Amino acid sequence: MLICWIVFVPCSVIVSIFSLSGGTRHLIYIAQSPTQLQYILKLNWIAQPLAIFCLGASKIAVAFLIIRLLHRTSVWRRWSLYLASGLTGINTVLMIIFTFVQCENPAALWDEDVKATTKCWDPSVQSSFSTYGASLHAAMDFYLALLPVSLVWGLQTDLRKRVALCALLGCGSL
């Protein structure tokens, strides 16, 4: 989580600069100034891999926390968390790599002059992989929220407390 936080700080700074520079305005207004548009697009593309890293790293950190807290639980829970963490890590790294290798010159992502002279992938490839990556991250969120429920349900306490604990632990999926 510390590594995630260290990466999150510059990501937050870049997103703040992006917002203060008008990056949250509608594209029609931003496009009126080509230099402003290029600057905002550059900030957006720089912030994306940092945000992707924070999403993946935080999920892995939570999975390792569950493993550490519940080290005496069943083997299938531990190994399923290791497997889910591995898949999340691979997915996160691929999403970051694909962000920058989609064009031979990454500057083509924000500079129209460079884009005219550089070969890039079909944008639908990056869009499809991003959808896949986001869905895998969402599945990991649900898994991390539901796994502790299987432990809580086995506790010897009244039904009301078990339901309350399950609802509380399941909030991570939101």
TrEMBL record:
Keywords: Membrane, Transmembrane, Transmembrane helix. GO terms for cellular component: membrane. Pfam families: Fung_rhodopsin. It is found in: Membrane. It is a multi-pass membrane protein. The keyword Transmembrane helix applies. Signal peptide: none annotated. Its main location: membrane. The chain crosses the membrane at residues 45-67, 79-101, 134-155. It comes from the Eukaryota. Residues 2-173 form the Rhodopsin domain. Belongs to the SAT4 family. PANTHER family: INTEGRAL MEMBRANE PROTEIN, PTH11-LIKE INTEGRAL MEMBRANE PROTEIN (AFU_ORTHOLOGUE AFUA_5G11245). This is Rhodopsin domain-containing protein. It comes from Sporormia fimetaria CBS 119925.
